[in-house]
Amino acid sequence: MKLVPSPTCSCGLEDQITDHILQKRPILESLRKTVWPTAFPFRCQLYGGKEDLEKTVSFVSLSGLRV
Ligand SMILES: [Zn+2]
Questions:
Q1: Cα–ligand 1 centroid distance for 24 (angstroms)
Q2: Which pLDDT tens digits describe the chain residue by residue (67 residues)?
Q3: What is the reported pLDDT for 22?
Q4: Handedness of CA 35, 10, 61, 19 (dihedral sign)
Q5: What does the pLDDT read at residue 66?
Q6: What Cα–Cα distance (Å) separates residue 50 from each residue in 37, 43, 44, 55?
């Protein structure tokens, strides 16, 4: 019945899961490089210290995605 919207991200590459948004979604690459200039582990984006988590919050906020 399609009561639930598709979990696939609008980029069509894979489901719009946390890992995809924070690490892989191509349209967010520029913003990702601004927030994390070098590769940054997914676990630190979710479970890191206060500064790590503030970056994650900033990234999600600036991405315009609604969570
Ligand atoms: Zn995507």
A1: 7
A2: 566 678 899 899 999 999 999 999 999 999 999 999 999 999 999 999 999 999 999 999 999 987 6
A3: 97
A4: negative
A5: 77
A6: 18, 13, 10, 9
Domain ranges of the chain: 18-63
Distance from residue 10's CA to the centre of ligand 1 (Å): 6
Task: Calculate how far, in angstroms, residue 19's C-alpha sits from the geometric centre of ligand 1.
Answer: 10
Distance CA 40, CA 26 (A): 16
pLDDT of residue 44: 97
In the structure, ligand 1 is a single-atom ion and the residues with CB under 5 Å from it are 9, 11, 25
Say how many Å lie between the CA of residue 27 and the centre of ligand 1: 8
Spacing, Cα 48 to ligand 1 middle (Å): 24
